[in-house]
Amino acid sequence: MATRCGFARRHEVFSACASDSKIFYIAGGHDQEKNALKSALSYHVSGDVWDPLPDMARHRDECKGLFYRGKFHVIGGYQTEMQGDFNKSAETFNVETGTWSPVEEDVLGTDT
């Protein structure tokens, strides 16, 4: 657990973000050297506390986030070596179990 520190600074740029109105989730993005990240964090608003989450399966820069049906969904993005070549995969963080799972269907479709 980390409180009021520079802990979240790694995720300042092009991260996926979403909230359930109590907890703010952030994942992916890139660091100061523009390396894509697979790490994730949660911010507990009422306690002003940042906590690390388990890493995602893939590095995801410029990904999108959505909180839906009790889960944090991270969609798209690209890995460092694939700069700008966005993938259509997604991962879901289950807040109940504290685990990531791949999303099996092509969430972005073929026309995006």
UniProtKB/TrEMBL annotation:
Coiled coil feature spans: none
Source organism, top-level taxon: Eukaryota
- GO BP of this protein: negative regulation of cytokinin-activated signaling pathway; regulation of phenylpropanoid metabolic process
What this protein is called in its record is Uncharacterized protein
Which organism is this entry from?
Answer: Papaver somniferum (Opium poppy)
